[in-house]
Every structure is written in C-alpha cells, then in structure tokens.
Amino acid sequence: MKYSENIEAIAELQPDYLGFIFWENSKRRFDSEEIPQLDSKIKKVGVFVDAKINEIIARKNQFDLDLIQLHGSESVAICEELQEQNIKIIKAFSINNQFDFSKLKQYIPYVDYFLFDTKGKLPGGNGITFDWKILENYSYEIPYFLSGGIGSTELEAVKQFIKTKAGKNCVAIDVNSRFELKSGYKNENKLRKFKKSLYEN
C-alpha cells in the first residue's frame, strides 16, 4: 500500500494484513510520514529487502508495524537478532521448480511465517505465479503465505490448493500487482469481489 485514501478504502474490506514496502528501489515504496489509523484487527506489515537492522527497527517503531517481511537474502543471524527485539518475522523465499526446501530448516527457530513468491527479476511484484505443486515438498509446520502473481483468474485454483495436503499450512494469500490500477494503488472493487469469492464454497 502507498496512498492514504487507497489505504483507508482497502482497510474497509478488512484484510488480515496490509503491506508497506520500504525498499528504496521499489516503485511501490511507502514514503509518507504516517500510516492512516487502521482497525486493530488489520496487521501492518513492513517489507524490507536486505535492509540494515537499525533501519528495520526504526521503521517498526515509527509506524508501529506488527510484522516485518524480509524479502531479500537476509541471513539466519539477522532473523535471530530481530527476534530478540520481539519482532514478528515473515521470511520470504523466491521459488522455482528446483527450489531446495531444506534451506528453510535453519530459519525455523527465528521466524513466525515463511512467504513463497515467484522467482523473478525483482524481489517481488513480478506478477507471475509459480507451480504450487512444488509445495508438496514443504514438510515443515511453520505456516506460510502464498504469493506471486495471484489474481482473479487464479481464484478457483487457490480455493482448490488450500484444500490439499500441500496447502494445509497456507494461512494467507498475498495479492498485489494483479489488483493494481497503478503501482501501489489497489482496485477496491476487484479486491472486494476476490475476497468475497474466496470464502464461498
């Protein structure tokens, strides 16, 4: 999220999370001085890419962020140090068909969630889905967010996936670029329809 009036409009839809990107190279970078007041049920997620720990902590405190999403090549040590600051962590990994899930094991003691996104040119927001069947190789109990180019055309596939064994630990569907009118500005009507349909049998 980027624009105040759009943040307020999307918050009316009561998403579980709203993301705010603080990576300076992102066209969606959040550069306002404050986030509009949100319902306490909506968790504010700050997204960082290989940022310094002091910057992450400063942003967390400035915007009262509920979770931090690490979307770069952050080490286990960085996750451990942030956890020691009582910061809840989503660690993102870019997935392709050759992804080795065993590399996640070392992160398990220090993160609250994983996020699986499509491996692409950018750390995120590439607008491309990956083959979710590869998540059958995910054998850990830590819950994860499913990300990567998910739009309205993937709705039925998402509903089917979360019923599978591979989807049993999927606790959130992360949507972004496929619901934008412009970078960082989300289409309220499309998101409302998507959310409503997601919960229909």
UniProtKB/TrEMBL annotation:
It comes from the Bacteria. Belongs to the TrpF family. Keywords: Amino-acid biosynthesis, Aromatic amino acid biosynthesis, Isomerase, Tryptophan biosynthesis. SUPFAM superfamilies: Ribulose-phoshate binding barrel. InterPro entries: Aldolase_TIM, PRAI_dom, RibuloseP-bd_barrel, TrpF_fam. Coiled coil: none annotated. Pathway: Amino-acid biosynthesis; L-tryptophan biosynthesis; L-tryptophan from chorismate: step 3/5. This is N-(5'-phosphoribosyl)anthranilate isomerase. It catalyses: N-(5-phospho-beta-D-ribosyl)anthranilate = 1-(2-carboxyphenylamino)-1-deoxy-D-ribulose 5-phosphate. GO terms for molecular function: isomerase activity. Its EC number is 5.3.1.24. It comes from Flavobacterium ardleyense. CDD domains: PRAI (cd00405). Residues 5-195 form the N-(5'phosphoribosyl) anthranilate isomerase (PRAI) domain. The lineage of its organism: Bacteria, Pseudomonadati, Bacteroidota, Flavobacteriia, Flavobacteriales.
